[in-house]
Amino acid sequence: MSATEVDSLRQQIARCAAARGIEVDAIYEEELDRASAQLVACIDALLEADEPYLIVPSLLHFAGFNNPLEVRRDLLSRGIEVLIAQDTTSG
After folding, report:
1. What is the C-alpha end-to-end distance of the chain, expressed in Å?
2. Which residues contact 71 (CB under 8 A, 6 or more apart)?
3. Which of 10, 21, 56, 85 is the residue whose CA sits 20 to 30 A from 30?
C-alpha cells in the first residue's frame, strides 16, 4: 500500500471519529506478517479503554482472521464497538 493510500485511510478514520465525536487515541497500522499480533495488542488496549471504539477502513479488514461479521460480533461481545470508516463519498 502506498503512502498516499495509507494517508487516505488515516483521513477516513479521522473523519469517521470526528463525525461521532470520538477522540482517536491511537492508530494501529498492521504489517501483513505481524497482523495477528498487532490486532491482539489493539484489542488489549481497547479492553482497558473507557469507551472502546475500533474504527476500521471496512469489514474486509478482518477477512484474514475469520469471517468478518463473526470477528465484529466477537468484538461487540467484548464491549468493543466496531465502526466502519469506508469513504462512501468517492467513486
Report:
1. 19
2. 62, 65
3. 21
